[in-house]
Amino acid sequence: MAQNLFKAARAQNALAAAAEITERKRLEDALRISEERNRDLVENAVYGVFRASLDGVLLEVNPAFLRMLGCSGPEDTSASNLMRDVFRYPEDWARMAAACREQGSLRGVETEWCRRDGCNFAVRLNLRRVSLDGAAEALEGIAEDVAELRAME
What was the pLDDT predicted at 107? Predict the structure, then answer.
């Protein structure tokens, strides 16, 4: 009798382990699909999306950000700094970064950026402060080129 109970318990444990493995696999697949969808959304956005350190070092950018600046690829921005290479008025970045540190985010702030060819253009920014790996702070931004809108006004 005890041997039958032992066999039944082992079978039940095996079924529970199999169910746990199946559930973990399902969750891993759902996470992978979600990450792919989010990456696709950012990569195909019409707005420039970027992540930068508080001192302006570009950490990540999407293709629309590169197009806005007239860059041919991510390597064009690998050594770029928003304050030095992107903002027409570097003090704008310093002011926005400080405000984001205090408030957590900024919405609809307009400034001017410089393209690689030297032309200036107006952008509208939404920024938010984030923590990277629980330690360093950074800013994430969404940039909209509003040059045509400003020219029409």
Answer: 96
